[in-house]
Amino acid sequence: MVGGGVAGLVAARDLAARGLRVTLVEAEDHLGGAVGAHQVAGLVLDSGAEAFATRSPAVPELLGELGLAERVVHPRRAGSWLYLPEGAVPAPDSGVLGIPADPTAPRLRAALGRAGLLRASLDRRMPAAVGASERSLGGLVRARMGQRVVERLVAPVTTGVHSAHPDELDVDAVAPGLRRALREHGSLGAAAGALRRAAPAGSAVAGLRGGMNTLSEALVRDLERAGAKLVTDHDVIALDRDPRRDGWMVIQRQPRHGAKTAVARGELLVLATDGATAVRLLGGHRDGLQRFGPEPGPQVALATLVVDDPRLDGAPRGTGLLVSADARAVRAKALTHATAKWDWVREAAGPGRHVLRLSYGRAQPDPSVVPPEVALPDQQLIRLALSDASTLMGVPLRPEQLAGADIVRWRAALPRAGVGHAQRVAAFRAELAHLPGTAAVGAWLAGTGLSSVVADTREQVRALLTAAGVPAAAATPTPSTPRKD
Ligand SMILES: Cc1cc2nc3c(=O)[nH]c(=O)nc-3n(C[C@H](O)[C@H](O)[C@H](O)COP(=O)(O)OP(=O)(O)OC[C@H]3O[C@@H](n4cnc5c(N)ncnc54)[C@H](O)[C@@H]3O)c2cc1C
Q1: What would the pLDDT profile of 79-88 be if each residue is shown by its tens digit?
Q2: Domains of the chain
Q3: Which co-factors does it depend on (predicted)?
């Protein structure tokens, strides 16, 4: 196993559960990848993912197996807001990815204007075939509801969640089932509403008391109990075939400690890194794999502010805001008011203390360019975040009110599911099938988000085990013991 984010941990757990001896190698000094924790003003908070989508049973099932079902919590129904060039407006409260379930609702007028609202309402009167052949999310929404819905309602959501404009996203990858629901229900609004209603408990996302980082912790505990070998702080630099066993040799280096190399051997190999790393490691073993240059997505930074201000007790912007790219008054792309969203965070923070999470890093035309805000030193980014938070919340916040702040930077953590994503993934996996005993998992293949990553990872591991002829119940252990060379 290479890579110890959620995909790697889940894959390792499923392999161990079938009786295999597992070695997992992770480059960082901690496991969990984008699902981790940090401490700010004495509070243990999520440093990356803070929730999971409830549209599929994948995450709830995993949580059940790990004994975490009782810790599942739902966000408070405080509504969310959009920040547009003209200021903050309430966001549509039903639908998916910002697509309103009722495009005629008068409350959308603040965001869309009169003409935009009229155009959006045409969705109800068009034949279901209009837009049905559009492959991008932006193309589909534009055809049905018009440009204003794309720019003002959907783009703020997709830039926040997927770091990409709706025109760059494959609709089937980011909103699975939406096109089918359009055919069934006759309009995009009805389709979005149906998808939203299909989410259990009426809420599109859920979290865990203590944060999503407790999922990574539980996975690690489970793996340790199962006897898996977890190697951190080792960067996998190359893969080689193991002629003795018809398996793999995983060559690692410990960059912080003299760059000495070590080798782990095994019959089965699961790569759970980012896409560029997986392609680099596998490319030398099969020419056809080299042409898969995955789109990395921009670097992002998360600024967490803990501020003392009772004026925020009333949650003036509900659970938070998504910011339109046209709104020049702020540089953040989203703000989550964590103490208004999650009861457990509010209780941990105590009266009058608030946790605000601001994310930075819009997609750049050239993906190798670091977004300017992400390039700022920590202290400058904290100052920018405080000023953005004041504008977004409508409450001026001063530096002396800061009880604590932290900046977490993520590289390659939000890969983009561009148009044609599903076909590219299928073609990649067809090539990979020429390397028996090998699987690749992770967000760059499954799509961003825990729900997609967990479901896809488990499916890939099942397929790998079936192809390798590993029996369903107790299985013959596969040797993958690392040997220091
Ligand atoms: C700030 C942020 C907020 C998010 N919020 C949410 C949310 O609220 N809800 C949600 O569902 N999703 C959210 N996501 C997305 C979600 O966290 C990811 O889609 C998911 O965690 C990806 O898991 P992964 O295992 O594929 O990748 P990662 O977590 O990126 O793990 C990949 C691992 O591979 C390791 N690795 C890379 N190269 C090597 C190498 N050469 N050798 C060894 N190891 C290597 C990396 O160090 C890393 O630990 C968020 C992501 C970010 C960044």
Answers
A1: 889 999 889 9
A2: 6-31+57-70+213-295+417-483 (3.50.50.60), 91-202 (1.10.3110.10), 298-410 (3.90.660.20)
A3: FAD
